[in-house]
Design brief:
The chain has 69 residues and is α+β, with helices and mostly antiparallel strands. It has a 5-stranded mixed β-sheet with strand order 3-2-1-4-5, covered by helices on one side. The radius of gyration is 12 Å and the shape is globular.
């Protein structure tokens, strides 16, 4: 199992959704789909730089689950 160079998390926050990476908020969105699209753009950029990346999304129970593309 390889270590992930980048981890992004999509979580509920302040009535919307936040994208978090490197222990900081990278964006706040009204809709989950907008946060997912932003995460996908960052994931593509990281992969173009040959870095591993993992995206997690908060489910209805509040648990972080792998984001399936």
């Amino acid at each position: 199992m390889s270590a992930f160079a980048t981890q992004l998390e999509i979580v509920r926050a302040d009535g919307g959704w936040s994208l978090i990476g490197d222990d900081r908020t990278l964006g706040h969105f009204h809709y989950r789909v907008d946060a997912e699209e932003a995460a996908l753009r960052l994931m593509e950029r990281a992969r173009s730089e040959h870095r591993d990346v993992r995206v997690l999304v908060q489910d209805e129970a509040g648990q972080l689950q792998p984001f399936r593309v």
